[in-house]
Predict the structure.
Amino acid sequence: MQSWNLKSFTRQWPLGLAVTTLWACSAAPMPAWVPLPTSSRPAVMAAASAPAEASAAPVVPAAQVAASAAASAGAASAPAPMVESPGVAARFPDPLVSYNTPAFEPGHAGFTSNAELRTLMHGLVRDGQGAANATTVRLLQVGSSQTGIPLEALQFSREPVPLASTGATASPARPTVLLVGEQHGDEPAGGEALIVVAQELAQGALAPLLDRINVVILPRANPDGAAADRRLTASGIDENRDHLLLRTPEAQAQAQLEREFKPVVVVDAHEYSAFGPYPAKFDALPRFDALVQYAMVANLPGFVTKASEEWFRQPMLQSLKAHGLSTEWYYTTSADPADKKVSMGGVQPDTMRNVTGLRNAVSFLIESRGVGLGRTHLLRRVYTQVTAITSVLKSAAARADDMQKLRGYVDAEVAAKACRGEMIVAAQPTPSEYNLRMLDPLTGADKTVTVAWDSALELHSLKVRARPCGYWLGADQTDAVLRLRALGLQVQRLDEAGELRGETYTVTARDFGERNDVRGSIADAGGVVHVKVERVAALIDARAGSYYVGLDQPLANLAIAALEPDTQSSYVTHRIVTDVARQARVLMQPALKMTPME
């Protein structure tokens, strides 16, 4: 990631002016964009329609779910909430607000159930077309969870959005903000907050923002996990490490929303552990209401980072402070008590935050302090999320025109880099020290701990390669092609055989292991194969029926993340590409006849 001097850049060239000028001056051609099949788009329910059935998705047999759950981390029933000392509890008083959601109804002992959430969402649906300043709320059916629970989202708009023959919405003129909650089923505050935000957008204080933006809300991305009060999906996969691989229907549903609506801003609402390993490591507890981080990953366009910081994070920090809520960069640590390192969020292209950043969108992770607390401080936790998300929505509305220009410029800039310059294949955060404010676990008093800190604000490149024109994939690599297309990448099929100038890969070392992130091992369905490779200049024997993934398209950086084989997140590592010999780097634009895949 390139380091940007925000203050000096702003003084010399304010971001809005920079975007406008670069947009006007850019000569980078936009590639022809081939839409995905209409059958893959979300079905829409208008106000007068009967509830549509969820689209078909593979249903995991109950026995398989139980076996996977028993074998995976976090699969056991949730432990009893830990108890704070009175001094710590006093640091987090309830705010003077009330929310009209099922979880806050008198006598409700848990959180909003899947059935309650579905009833509430269906009740918000309305057709506002034809009335001045009226809000239209559509229900989007985007699939089913692994146990068959519908995955449903809401679209909020005040612009005419005609329905196509498939029932899908046409591309809106106003920029879209996508809000996602509860990818981890034991982190309820984000989902509860998105119910509040949905109500306020439908007929409350946030509705006027829809004069500038559209909003899509997926309040519960992991309903199976929420029903079981467990982090993982039913098959034991961490959904928030599945946004490049797309192995779960839950991650596929979110990719579908991003393909269809192309949001310029995305918020992923989570909760972090109020206890975790911190007492054992530091004799201290986390103290912040909200931990916040935007996309920080190799090959992220610099202007996306600048917009994230200047247009969104800074106003969010001011808003949280004005509401009496404390904030810090997102951080975490491993479960190993001997490992005293604290890290900002991971820099791999696998989480929603980072994958969405590589889609050229502003992408935020917002974590409230909640895991391990049960319902304790739930009102404050939801209030924290509502405050932060409201700030994002207001910033998006205020910068709607600028966000459209920024997205157009960055899309063109990324596409224009094909065949030239360098790209980062792997990167790591910067080791440093940090004075981290925490709490004394007994008294609740502030306690500053100096920690070894891996900063994701500036990344160091580990592997750098020349950026190819694209990638070749063998005709038998249909699984990889389907996943790339599900991400929104344009893939072309060769209509004729020929030779492509490029580089093939030779494996020099291979070993089997686990995926890891800054927390430790990632819950996964099986291990991974790590390879070391050498690149060999070659004329690639490209047969008819094989595939070409050009980098002259806006999502090129996603193709790089998936198809450079010697990284933890690659399709080779996860056996999606079956052999390194079945893919290659193409170094000259193909002259062969090709057909874009529909």
Summary: The chain has three domains: 1-42+139-334+342-416, 423-462, 467-596.
